[in-house]
Amino acid sequence: MNLAPATTPLDSWHRQAGGKMVDFAGYALPVQYAGGGIVAEHQACRTAAALFDVSHMGRLRFDGVGSEALLDHLLTRRVSDMPVGRVRYGLLCNAEGGVLDDVLVSHLETPSGQRYHLMVVNASNRQKIWKWIQPHLDDFPGVTLTDRTELTAMIAVQGPKAIELCDRLFKVPPSRLKYYRATITEQFQKPAIVSRTGYTGEDGFELIVRAEDAPRVWENLLLAGRDHGVIAAGLGARDTLRLEAGMPLYGHELTEQIDPLSAGLSFACNLKDRSFIGDEALRQIADAGPPKVRIGLLPEGKRPAREGCDVVSADGQVIGRVTSGAPSPTLGRPIAMASIDAAQADNQRFEIDIRGKRVAAIRTALPFYKR
Amino acid sequence: MARDTSKLRYAETHEWVDAGDDGVATIGISAFAIEQLNDLVYMDLPEVGKDVAVGDEIGEVESVKAVSPLYSPVSGQVVEVHTELPDNLDNLKEDPYEFGWIIKIKMTDASEVEKLMDHAAYEKQCSEAG
């Protein structure tokens, strides 16, 4: 079977802008656009602002009494204490404590006063999470779960100028939101969910609009920032930006084979006084100490260490592997995140086996870049 | 004198070959491939004296996003390597056919060059890919 990738509501814009399209988690999306390249798009985000089509991310809506209890049962962090307008990062784990996905949950209220929770999941995990939640719905009969992904589009606007430039476009300006807050607003009479969140290490916001409104909204955002160096950026820049910001990516730093404590996400696991799927496993891991640790590495020289390269200790033992690696456009040198044995966590010097050649690498604090 | 790209031969994997009368082939990567790779950050080249066959990996170029192997379009021995190139990858984009030469191979079978694509065939491949 060879199914063509799905397209986002911004597909024709991407193609007209010379987007180099690839299949990413079942969606056709641009790696980069014509005329610039990953580095230029990356730098635009660090110095001005960049727009990203993130419509491939899954959007699952929880309505009804029991939504909070259900989410509390599924997530490593409590949701039931979130007031309207709050956004929270958390993880869904299996019973063994392996990570099924990392997600953002927003508590929202419509203008007519209807409250609901919206969970944004990774594109590659959308079907898996949908199926994972289904059997639990029987225990929470008041909850209605709907998949809003295909009815809506999602746009990230990220960079130091993002908020200021786009503020005047919205009925409730993004600058009124604090970090990790969200609201339902309007852009030129079109409904939109705006949250002050992102995945680049920059200030900015993420926007969810109806699919049919997306091209117009995208154009409005670009127009607003046109004279200030705001451009569209593809998946390539999104990946180098999030890596510089030290943010984990599902399938790389996070998998079902790794627990969140080993992935350095203990802040996102509230184990005290709580019961949720995977809590016992995570408590045991916390008590024994996580077997792995996620670290930042600076490989010497110009050659980037890529995902899958072995990390080697000073005495020649393979003690982990690179989970993400790329040249950092901001630092002008290669950077890498790796998962290594916790027993080696105090070491500062390692070697990385880059396709048969050993390269020295020094441990560094995460994130690599902080605004 | 600038290299006449219409007289070069091309591999499917985007290496160009300038086969000299002395049996030495100069090899680089095409402007199309460099444009596609974009944002080059690293290049790894073979040692002088290495024997290679058609299709052997002779090095790699890395862009921000990915690693791309370089394949030898001919058989023979590496007789010269452009050692300045890895430190000046920006210039590769400006001048892929002169400054951008990568290695020279003393060919063991010059007829292999005839099996490579001519300029028209290569342009067709690129237009279909692009």
Automatic annotation (TrEMBL), chain B:
<dbReference type="InterPro" id="IPR003016">
    <property type="entry name" value="2-oxoA_DH_lipoyl-BS"/>
</dbReference>
<feature type="modified residue" description="N6-lipoyllysine">
    <location>
        <position position="65"/>
    </location>
</feature>
<keyword id="KW-0450">Lipoyl</keyword>
<dbReference type="GO" id="GO:0009249">
    <property type="term" value="P:protein lipoylation"/>
</dbReference>
<dbReference type="GO" id="GO:0005960">
    <property type="term" value="C:glycine cleavage complex"/>
</dbReference>
<dbReference type="InterPro" id="IPR017453">
    <property type="entry name" value="GCV_H_sub"/>
</dbReference>
<dbReference type="GO" id="GO:0019464">
    <property type="term" value="P:glycine decarboxylation via glycine cleavage system"/>
</dbReference>
<feature type="domain" description="Lipoyl-binding">
    <location>
        <begin position="24"/>
        <end position="106"/>
    </location>
</feature>
<dbReference type="Pfam" id="PF01597">
    <property type="entry name" value="GCV_H"/>
</dbReference>
<comment type="subunit">
    <text>The glycine cleavage system is composed of four proteins: P, T, L and H.</text>
</comment>
<comment type="function">
    <text>The glycine cleavage system catalyzes the degradation of glycine. The H protein shuttles the methylamine group of glycine from the P protein to the T protein.</text>
</comment>
<dbReference type="InterPro" id="IPR033753">
    <property type="entry name" value="GCV_H/Fam206"/>
</dbReference>
<dbReference type="GO" id="GO:0005829">
    <property type="term" value="C:cytosol"/>
</dbReference>
<dbReference type="InterPro" id="IPR002930">
    <property type="entry name" value="GCV_H"/>
</dbReference>
<dbReference type="InterPro" id="IPR011053">
    <property type="entry name" value="Single_hybrid_motif"/>
</dbReference>
<protein>
    <recommendedName>
        <fullName>Glycine cleavage system H protein</fullName>
    </recommendedName>
</protein>
<comment type="similarity">
    <text>Belongs to the GcvH family.</text>
</comment>
<dbReference type="InterPro" id="IPR000089">
    <property type="entry name" value="Biotin_lipoyl"/>
</dbReference>
